[in-house]
Amino acid sequence: MKIEITEKKENLLQERTEVRFTVDHTGEATPTRNAVIDGISKMMKAKKGTVVINNIDTQYGRGISKGYVKVYVSKEAALKYEREYLLKRSGISKDAEAPAAEEAPAAPVETAVEEAPKEE
């Protein structure tokens, strides 16, 4: 798998770099999102939690895929600007909000059992 960056654009307003890329995977399967994130993060010298894949399109029968990735300055910027389903696909979670939801104790469930009257 060989990744080549075809276009790079700085977007200072949304704290990110927008990258268009081409992946040559001739003779191999289409690369997974995680493999592409690893490759792009190494090329851009960014942390994995700041890279969000928007799309990857494979050309039929050629072994070449083209895609669009957004590399954010920080994870907080990615959480602020990016849509939730894209964050989930890219493996970025909202760590700050998850524990708050889990800390709320569940109300104990009480079951009442009625006793049948004794017959004499």
- Work out the helix count: 4
Q: Order of strands side by side in the largest beta sheet? A: 1-2-4-3
Q: Name the CATH superfamily classification.
A: RRM (RNA recognition motif) domain
CATH class: Alpha Beta
Low-confidence stretches: 97-107
Structural class: alpha+beta
Number of beta strands: 4
Arithmetic mean pLDDT: 83
Commentary on this structure:
- About 9% of the residues have low confidence.
- 27% of the residues lie in helices and 31% in strands.
- The chain has 4 helices and 4 strands, in the order ββαββααα.
- It is of the alpha+beta class and 120 residues long.
- Strands 1-2-4-3 form a 4-stranded antiparallel β-sheet.
- The protein is elongated, with a radius of gyration of 24 Å.
What descriptive keywords fit this protein?
single chain, 120 residues, Alpha-Beta Plaits
Write the layout of secondary structure elements.
Blueprint: E1 2-11, E2 16-24, H1 33-44, E3 51-59, E4 64-72, H2 75-81, H3 84-89, H4 97-103
Antiparallel strand pairs: 1-2, 2-4, 3-4
